[in-house]
Amino acid sequence: MKRFLFILVSLLCTCDLCAAKKVVWVIDAGHGGYDVGCEFGYAYEKHICLAVAKEVGRLVSKNMSDVRVVYTREKDAFLTLQQRCNVANARGAALFLSIHVNSAPNPFARGTESFFATNVPMKGTQAGKSELLALLLQKQYLKNGREVSRGVKQRELYVCENTNMPSVLTEVGFITHSGDRNYITSKAGQNELAQAIYEALSEWKQLTKDGKVPQRTLRNLRYTHHDPITMVTTPQRETTEADARAKEAAEAKVVAEAQAEEKAKAQAQAQKQAQQGATAEPATPVVTEPATPTAAEGKIYFAIQLMNTAKKLEAGDYRLKGFKDVRFIPAGERFKGIYSYSESYLDIKNELVQVRETFPEAFIVAFRGDQQITTAEALANLKL
Ligand SMILES: [Zn+2]
Question: 51 alpha carbon to ligand 1 midpoint, in Å?
Fold first, then answer.
């Protein structure tokens, strides 16, 4: 009977009935689908992130019965940054770990680095937990044989800022550095990285098990791992992927501010009109042709402007560089070449990254029906 009970209890504890007792950790493999991340030759960041993320998940699932691993993606699929945050927020995850690969114009830049954000008010006490994990990751990378640690940095990264739990973004190496690249693209290197990450996670779990962050440990780790232990010979600062992400976050902030400003303006205008009893003057239509199937419905959508030309270009024109379904809409004497459309600003923003590889000057435009409006206005009118 004892034996039977033991088996029963064991069975219960691995089944879904006990799921409520498990904490959820979200492991996010960066990029995916058409967003390959950084690349070098045949090496794509998205594949490296996924391989390491899955191995980390496997180690956690195997060794920590009280943790349920949830992946943002388990295959080569595209997800927006917000979708990744949503996975963690909706699940009430206790941890969000995003795995990435670095790149830099400087081919000597190498090593690992980990990022966390603290300037999110809702994070409060959670902030120390993010920093602690970032520090433990850097500690374990070194312990597991990585030679260069670029340390722990505080940075405004989308996934760290928009998740409600301790969250860290870790860069496991540079795809642009030959040594790093060989390591992070090899099965042995990926397994070793996953092992280091797993060990950092175990330590973090142990240290925070009472819900608090041991301050002395945090201080000691800061002392060793906060400032990069620079073994890279070139001292100049490289522009890394994280910098690009930080820039993106800053841009999003500008958009949000523009949105707020636009809203306030519109409210003031409406108030003024209400007082004067006047009706709004219709805005001058910029676009005179229906631009998309949604045009007639007066919906707000975003698109990408590729070019401004004197004439409409025929499909297949070499200047379209292989892009299909580019619509040319009149703008004064000239034409705007408009590509793609989506009601999701984030989707278009992500697509723009891809488009800019071919058309570096491309930018986002917004429409209400067949009328072009400012992006800020479009955002202000969207129910986000
Ligand atoms: Zn990345």
Answer: 14
